[in-house]
Amino acid sequence: MDASVPTRRKTKSPQQAFLAKTFHWVNIVALVLMISSGLQIYNANPVFGGRGGWHFPDLVLLGGWLAGGRDWHFAIMWVYSLNLFWYGIYVFVTRRWQHRFASSSDLKAVKASQNIKRKNYAWHRLVYTAIVPILLLAIASGLAMYKPAQLHWLSGLFGNWQTLRTVHFITVPIVVGFTFVHSVMALRAGTIRLVKSMFF
Amino acid sequence: MSLILPQRSLSRRQLLQWSGLSGAGLLLGGCQSRFLPDKITQGSRFLTDKVGQISEPLNQKIEALMLSQQPVPEFAASEIEPDKLLINTFDTTPQIDPAQFRLTVNGEVNKPIQLSLTELQNLPLTSMVIRHVCVEGWAAIIQWGGVRLRDLIQLAQPKPGVRYVFFQSADGYYESWDIASCLHPQTLMAYQKNGQPLAIDNGAPLRLAAPIKLGYKQSKWVTGITLLSALPAQTGYWEDQGYEWFAGL
Questions:
Q1: Which residue, A147, B16, B39, B220, is most buried by CB atoms nearer than 10 A?
Q2: Among candidates B123, B114, B116, which has minimal Cα distance to B98?
């Protein structure tokens, strides 16, 4: 090798598994459709304030009217939940949960690490791991409202109807907030190259 | 007015925002011309209807499979929410003289019957405290008292091929149900609400009440029950506007 040419270690671009990228894409599209059709349903009788309550503006709604919103919501629910389901199996079978999700070492790093890179990375992993139970809660609370008679045991877990509606609705601001935080943290943990690797 | 009606008139600006920015925009942006707002409305309605047409048969099949003939657990009388039941009516509130009222049960039966309110009230009374769930999203815990629909169906001696039941109301409202839901032990023709005689706004003298269907399936002011072997072309007032037919809970 010519010694006059400065040797630069070629930095390897991060790579993501094809199935992880597939899950991520489908999940994003399904969530956009679920949230916009869900807000259409919300507007028929706002969780906060009933008919006199504040309504979401048309530009974030999907379906045109209540029945249309329900059509979308109860069609895309299959895409959303089956996507989570196969991804859960994939994560379990390939043991991705052991090395791709937050662990006790990330908790330790957040508390004690002096290495800012390690700390950012730990926070990033903690945040995207924490959204998983929220995604599952959206399904559980949704099912409890969709079939409160046949799944009365599930609806019963949420206490009264208003609590159930509130829990289901609250997953929306959590997911929207998560999207921002998750994007910023991914940028901090691995720059735009990490973000790109998750999409393309 | 009551259940949310389809939005037919959107301004051009709203439509452009809607098609460009909303979740629908993701899908519509590619396949609709932005210079033809009418086409966009038609297009989005068309797409939404398609989504419903594809998903509803599957969803309704699963709803029918989930339907159990076991009674849904009831609530305590102390949990009744008298103020939460909103009044939804598609048109007018009919005035019916209880003395003149007759309920007809006919169609594919061996013995069509006509019952007065007194005759109905002499049949065994079933009382239940259940949750009434409206498609709009609100719910109310209510006590209903009345006659089991399956008792009335039995009185009329249905023929073997009966699969659906059509309900005609005095205000022109109409509904149709699957037979399994009609035979459920908590599907009542109710004349009592929260321990009182049914109020005219709630459907007096006789209405459908059940914990297993959304509110719009539970016709008020029912005057005719027709047993059928096939679904009629018009399956229900709201269904004909685009709402789901099975609407099971």
A1: B220
A2: B116
